Amino acid sequence: MSADTDINTAHRFIEPLDVLFLRGNKLFGDPGSFGESLVPPWPSAAAGALRSQMLAHDGTDLAAFAKGQICHPSLGTPQAPGSFALTSFMLARKSANGTVETLHALPADLVATEKDNKRHLQSLRPQLPSHGMRSSSGFTHVPVLAEAERRKASSGLWLTHPGWQKYLRGQLPDPVHDLLTTSDCWAIDARVGIGLNSDTGSADDGKLFTVQAVAFRPGIGFVASVRGAILPSQGTLRLGGDGRAASSQSIALQAPEADLQAISDQGRCRIVLTTPGLFTQGWLPNGITRHDDGSHWLDLHGVRARLVCATVPRSETISGWDIARWQPKAALRAAPTGSVYWLDQLQTTPAALGKLAESGFWSATCEDTQRCAEGFNRFTFAAYNFA
After folding, report:
1. Taking CA atoms, which of 116, 121, 149, 357 is between 20 and 30 Å from 50?
2. Per residue in 282-294, pLDDT tens?
3. How many whole angstroms separate alpha carbon 31 and alpha carbon 208?
4. Does residue 314 have a pLDDT over 60?
């Protein structure tokens, strides 16, 4: 198993070889409890699997590394992470000819509905509230969905590569050709587990619980992008609960991206979280401050702009298991993937926009080096509004 020699961004297609137990943040194991799976899992799951693969590939003494007695060239130590940084982690599909396209859950400003077995896609648009209208929003604009007729909400949809590219360029994706359903990507296989007696190691009577196993369709997996490390070009990973097998293969990836020059010229944009946001101000990204006049301004890595509107789904709680310390990680509230923030009065250059997207919502001193390395607070730019 060889390793890449380039320490710039490397892309890996991770394909499950078995069902996966992608556990979220809900406890299970008590009699009658039910353990849900989270797809895609938090980026920390991929970061942990890839770092474990690197340590095994390099022949590192895992026990000594966990105790901080060994400093890895790119992983550092558990207490002081090195240059390794997961920059993106998303669902993906591999075609018969070997090309890989990324798949994306609908951002919070895209709304899918159905009527008469016909699917529709609409977008939330920031608008000034009508005169006399009051709300708890502290922004000048509010996200509005203008509907001419009532339709039934539709869920479990994923944007394909072309659909995501249209979205980033400010075009509305095609509801027929640019979407996949969850059933196109995976199926849920409920598994029954038995609670064990911690003293005897044998099964306890009546302690049955159910967990969700995720069975991926052929060709469906994940794409993980890593900067600052030399990864094995191929191999096998232990991924998710119970360390189920998944293959990792080096790929060339041309990820969809917004036109940063056009955004700079236009002076406004959207920011879309591509991984959960662990922000010091809750749902408000790092680098944004509230001024005395009530306005919110972003000032980070050479990008300055006013935040005029946001649509952020209900927060989720991120934790995980720290293998080195053999204890749970701290539970943190996160802004979900797909949260959208609208910015105007943009004062920057395309190069500065690219630097900010590369850094993610982390300051120069970095609020949490471990969570940064695990791939949180990542986002992409998109055109301000839909054509």
Report:
1. 357
2. 999 999 999 988 8
3. 5
4. yes
Joined together, the tokens standing for residue 62 give: 């895992």
Each domain of the chain, given as residue ranges in start order, spans 260-382
Q: How far apart are CA 336 and CA 242, in angstroms?
A: 25
Q: How far apart are CA 362 and CA 226, in angstroms?
A: 16
DSSP 135-148: -S--SS-EEE---S
Contact 39, 22 (CB under 8 A): yes
**For 263, phi and psi rounded to 5 degrees?**
-65, -45
Helix (H, G, I), strand (E, B) or coil at 226: strand
Q: What pLDDT does residue 2 have?
A: 47
* CB-CB neighbours of 150 under 10 Å: 7
Distance (Å, rounded) from C-alpha 303 to C-alpha 281?
A: 19
Between the alpha carbon of residue 363 and those of residues 288, 311, 356, the distances in Å are 11, 23, 10
Please answer whether residues 110 and 99 qualify as being in contact, where contact means their C-beta atoms are separated by less than 8 angstroms: no
CATH number for the region 260-382 comes to 2.60.40
C-alpha 245/C-alpha 238 separation (Å) is: 5
Tell me how far the alpha carbon of residue 339 is from its chain's centroid: 11
What is the DSSP code (8-state) at residue 202?
S
The helix/strand/coil state of 240 is coil
Q: Is the pTM of this model over 0.70?
A: yes
